[in-house]
Amino acid sequence: MQRVIAANSVDSAGADTEPTTGTPGYFTSGNPVNSVPATTIPGYWLDMIQEELMAIITAGGVTPAANTWDQVLTALNALYVPASSGVFKEVKTQVFTSSGTYTPTTGMVYCEVIAVGGGGGGAGGGNTSNANSGGGGGGGGGTAMSVFTAATIGSSQTISIGSGGGGSGAGNPSSGGGGGGTTTFGSLLTAGGGAGGGGAGAGWGQGGSGGSGSGGTINFGGSAGVSGGFYTGVGYGSGGSGGGSFLGGGGNSSGPGKSYGGGGGGGSSNSGGAGAAGVVIVKEYISA
Description:
- The structure is a single chain.
- By secondary structure, this protein is an alpha+beta fold.
- The protein is built from three helices and ten strands, in the order ααββββαββββββ.
- The protein has helices at residues 43-59, 71-79, 150-153; strands spanning 88-96, 100-102, 108-116, 143-149, 157-160, 183-185, 189-191, 213-214, 218-220, 279-287.
- Strands 1-10-3-4-9 form a five-stranded antiparallel beta sheet. A five-stranded antiparallel beta sheet has the order 2-5-6-7-8, with no helix packed on it.
- Strand 6 and strand 7 (189-191) form a beta hairpin.
- Helix 1 (43-59) packs across helix 2.
- It is rod-shaped, with a radius of gyration of 32 Å.
């Protein structure tokens, strides 16, 4: 759409002015039999319709162009595209399991983003029957989630994925598991990693605390890892399970985290399991 290009058109300074008095009414084609004249369409009224449409096009970020007759629809899709309307061209999901850059798909109106921190590693258990306690499970990674408009995202956002904490070896006593790394989505979302499980020794290893999320409309803490068992006879205590993240559970005894951000399980007479790395999931709503 473009403003009128015709003989005797004027610039904005020369346009007719809408009257401020009179009674608003409706058009008529007239009735010669009853001497009812047809309505004369004034220039100011045509300008009003033209400028109302041009305002929609401009607000929607569309450049007016002659002989393009769908620009009002394009602008409305950009300005107001509720998910229930069915006018999205595409809903696209991008999953980031390693650090990188999120660049919005062309036409992205808004996106839902979930960031999960890395899970903590499980601690190894006592490796002799005299050190009969299990290692603690690592804590689950925290989660931050929110919805962002295209304007907030801008041209791109840098993503850093938190690694899973390493499991520690068995020992008498054993050392604690490694902490999970922090996941970030630009400066918009931060999801902290879970703490590593506590080492086994004269007492059972404590479960690691869960990570926390920040910056999101909704923020979740990861579940804490389970403390290792303690066996009073000759034998080995069981390793504690890893804590879960928003996306799933942690590892069983000495097992790795089962899902993104899951904590590793603590060991019994063996090493603890590694925590699972974090993730960023971006679900884009793309205009028609």
